[in-house]
Amino acid sequence: MRNFAINLAIEAGKILQDYFGRKITVSHKGQIDLVTEVDLLSEKYIKEQIASHYPKHQILAEEGGLSLTSSDYRWIVDPLDGTTNYAHGYPIFCVSIALEQAGKVVLGVVYDPTRNELFVAEEGLGALLNNRPIHVSEKALLKDALLVTGFPYDIKTTTKNNLNYFSRFALTARAVRRSGSAALDLCYTAAGRFDGFWEMHLGAWDAAAGVLIVKEAGGSVSRFDGSEFELYPPKTKTMEILATNKLIHQDMIRVLADDFVLPT
Ligand code: IPD
Ligand code: CA
Ligand code: CA
Q1: Which of 92, 206, 211 to mutate to test ligand 1, by most ligand atoms within 8 A of the CB atom?
Q2: Which tens digits make up the pLDDT trace of 149-168?
Q3: With 80 as the cut, is the pLDDT of residue 33 above it?
Q4: Can you spell out the DSSP letters for 158-218?
Q5: Rounded average pLDDT over 166-186
Q6: Which fold has domain 142-256?
Q7: Which ligand places an atom closest to the C-alpha of 185?
């Protein structure tokens, strides 16, 4: 299944690469939430391959929802993470595929076709970038850290829009980036390119593979208050993800706390 998932991500990545920069049809799922014909093509390809190799497995894919079966296995698929970037011709996007077994993510594969970078992690076996082991960074101080985040698609209508946290970290860390691909943000944290990542309101497809990749690279993943990360939070809670190199985790939790006040 590991090789199958790797081939699947690479082949789907080729679809993204083939259409990149061409005139494509873009529709709106929400005010700023786009879906392109390439999201749909990539997802169709991935689902067909899974259905033909593992017809009993469940599939949770961003555009098509969940196909429930009695199987223990569930594929969690983001066929194009970074759609807004993609639709604008900004080359930061990827395919993210995770495999869950009995409710636990055991395999994560993220492929960036632009840079030909393949991130893979299997539970207990470490994380790899193009077959070489990767590890989170060794930055121990928040003030020296390069962080990354993202904003929810309902940013214009919700008060939980992450702008408060963004300004806190902009003033406490070295710098903050917004790449537009949560799956790559997690992989880059795993590879030590970023020291920490936080975001809210993500879907399971954005995070499933990347979370395993960060953990297997030696990082920590939790909710904003340090409690256990939930891939499928109950309706009463929103998804919150804080993924770091472990060393700055507590400092980031402190900045994300309700009672945080900026030092003067
Ligand atoms: C989005 C990206 C983005 C994040 C959004 C996601 P999509 O996924 O990962 O970085 O900020 O919350 O929804 O829509 O491009 O697959
Ligand atoms: Ca996504
Ligand atoms: Ca997507």
Answers
A1: 206
A2: 999 888 888 888 999 999 99
A3: no
A4: -S--SHHHHHHHHHHSSEEEE-S-HHHHHHHHHTTSSSEEEEES--HHHHHHHHHHHHHTT
A5: 98
A6: D-Maltodextrin-Binding Protein; domain 2 (3.40.190)
A7: 1
> Are 35 and 63 spatial neighbours (Cβ–Cβ below 8 Å)?
yes
* CA 62 to centroid of ligand 2, rounded, Å: 8
Tell me the best of 95, 201, 202, 240 to mutate to test the pocket of ligand 1, counting ligand atoms within 8 Å of each CB and taking the most. 202
| CA 256 – ligand 3 centroid, Å | 26
* Residue with token string 């993220």: 110
Closest ligand 1 atom to residue 151 Cα is 11
What's the predicted TM-score (pTM) here?
Answer: 0.97
Average pLDDT for the chain: 95
Nearest CA to ligand 1 atom 14: 83
* Ligand 1: lining residues by beta carbon, under 6 Å: 78, 81-84, 150-152, 180-182, 199, 202, 206
- What tokens does 57 get? 């497995």
Q: Cα separation of 202 and 239, whole Å? A: 6
Amino acid at 202: L
pLDDT digits (tens, 9 = 90+) for 86-141: 999 999 999 999 999 999 999 999 999 999 999 999 999 999 999 999 999 999 99
Q: How far is CA 14 from CA 3, 52, 65, 93, 227, in A?
A: 17, 20, 23, 12, 38
Neighbours of ion ligand 2 (CB under 5 A): 78, 81, 206
CATH number for 2-133: choose from 3.30.540.10, 3.40.50.2000, 3.10.100.10, 3.60.60.20. 3.30.540.10
